Amino acid sequence: MSAQPVPAAGAGGAPTDGVPRIGALGRMIGVLFNPRETYSDIARNPSWIVPVVVIVVISLAFGWVMNQRIDWGDYIRHQAEKSPRFAQLPEEQKQRALEPQIKYSPHFVYAFCVLGPLLTPVIVGAVYLLAFNMAGAGAKFKQALAVVAHAQSTTLISGPLGILTMWLRSYGDVTPENMLASNVGAFLGSDSPQWMRSLGGSLDIFSIWFLALIALGFAATNPKKISTGKAIGIVVGIWLVVVMAKVGWAAAFGS
User: Fold this and answer.
1) pTM recorded for the entire structure
2) 19-42 per-position pLDDT tens digit
3) How many Å from the N-terminal Cα to the C-terminal Cα in the chain?
4) CA dihedral 140, 47, 32, 203 (to 10 degrees)
5) Which of 25, 31, 21 is nearest to 150 (CA)?
6) In sequence order, which residues have a C-beta less than 8 Å from that of residue 194 and are 6 or more positions away?
7) Which domain holds residue 152?
């Protein structure tokens, strides 16, 4: 795996526009450690399939370890018992209600591990494409897909860290909320208000890194119209709206 520039297909093996190209896997490493130069290359020649495939593979490995370490029966029952209505049900009814969730939760994990990396570039890319084009970027959808797909390269770091963290824990000692202590919410007690845990979960190191890469990626699509500061403002602005909506929902309907 190398981040060294490689020539694009052209006469004599030289780049057709005189600018060196970075290989597909090199781009994934490049956006993490040299994002400006790498995203400039991506903006000139956008691609997204390789990063998505790689992230899906890492996510499936993460999901497999997660299913090996989470006691879904205990976790789902514990969550259900928080509802006073459920707690009052006879034991037999509780068991019947929980069985489908316990049975299919591992399958949902694998589905999410595949669909998440596939849909994130489409959905997040479309939202930010609209916002940046309203600001005059004039970006194309393929560029937006490439920007977000490569921003997901943070999984190259968070994925293995999460896998190692879960693997070192005992069976049943892992829950979906504490797989990797990379956010403020991981340090809040279980008795903390739901809105506070929702806010803490949004303050995540890898999520912030992901957003920073998106800002740099869209700035590279049209640096004359979109400065880095302006790009960060657009990305953070939309993120704040989403976080406020999550926190408000949790405050209104959470326990």
Assistant:
1) 0.86
2) 557 899 999 999 999 999 999 999
3) 47
4) 50
5) 31
6) 250, 251, 254, 255
7) 5-253
